[in-house]
Design goal:
Layout lengths: L10 E9 L8 H11 L2 E10 L10 H14 L3 E4 L5 H11 L2 E3 L1 H12 L3 H15 L26 H36 L4 E6 L5 H9 L16 E7 L3 E7 L9 H6 L1 H8 L3 E7 L5 H14 L7 E6 L10 E4 L5 E5 L8 H13 L2 E8 L4 H9 L3 E6 L5 E8 H9 L1
Parallel strand pairs: 1-2, 1-3, 3-4, 5-7, 5-8, 8-9, 9-11
Antiparallel strand pairs: 6-7, 10-11, 12-14, 13-14
Length: 418
Amino acid sequence: MFFERPDKGERAVLVHPVMMDEAEQEDRREFQELVGSAGADEVELVIARRQHPNAKFFVGSGKVEEIRQAVLVHDAEIVLFNHALTATQERNLEKEFQCRVLDRTGLILDIFAQRARTYEGKLQVELAQLEHVSTRLVRGWTHLERQKGGIGLRGPGETQLETDRRLLRARLKTIAGKLDRVRKQRDQGRRSRQRAEIPVVSLAGYTNAGKSTLFNHLTNADVYAEDQLFATLDPTMRRLDVDGLGPLILADTVGFIRHLPHKLVEAFRATLQEAAEATLLLHIIDAADENRDDNIEQVNDVLREIKADEVPRLLVYNKIDLVEGKKPRLDRDDQGVPWRVWVSAETGEGIELLLEAVCERLAGEMAREELTLAASDGRLRAKFYQLGAVVSETVRENGEIVLQIRMPRQDYDRLLAG
């Protein structure tokens, strides 16, 4: 964050604090995946157990010395903490280690900065970064407390630190204005889709659950998909035509993570609004992840925060190819409504079941009928084909046409009534 990125991975000492007085601990494995996603090379992992954080260093003085020795031995360039640090704690630790120190929030912000590709995504990341760094403005700077000098600038004047703060506030205001315009454009597009009555299906889920792979499989798109955290940052939308339902808009969104920094939730509110205002939310879950139940709850927490918890939801358990003995399956509730689908976006197993579930959830009650038409009913037959509702067709010897129909009940009734 705000530094030149090296040509190769930086050597990083990782610190994983275990706070006894905290009910919900950070995940060590996930932290190591975050570090890898940021492009750093882990040289040593230090476990720091404490009852509660130390006000000066967050960890105890003995652990500070252990980390300092690890930095010296490995010639590390950065120390990464799997916890939020205060600005004072970061400054104190940097003085001790003589290298940069970054907490969990700063690490996630750096990954987001690498992933952002669109104009809106870059603006949102910069906004979150500037808001985060505003409390850490004096860190690592030697000139900030000096007053400016030179012709016309001597005297009381403002310190360089005050100048930097003023420039920072001006930049924050500029970015906020640009994002406001982007949000208005996005709102216009959303209203246009609503007027056209095109349903929006939004993919949401924990980071690295396979959302982009599934999105690519469904839409034949070429969205970046890798086995790393936050592979996708910018929202992508594609039109998808579903047999028996018609067109819909499929939206891929940024992945969630436990303790997602509030600044990021705020900055990406416009992007996440696609999830909040979707017709149907597909909650993508990594079926092979041993922490999947915890991840589901973390996603639910973020959905509640962006007020998307009332949106109709279909659970999609992905990556069944990594779970021994698991086959594609569509689970229904007591009313026969689909609520969970087991698929593999990588192999394509279960995708037809997913589309069937989406079709039913969006269309409500589906009509599955056998319809006999006279030879003179060619216009009605053509309408069924236009809607993609014909499953099969047979012609009897007397010229009658037998159609197997599958389509939304309300559309079926309207066609026959007309």
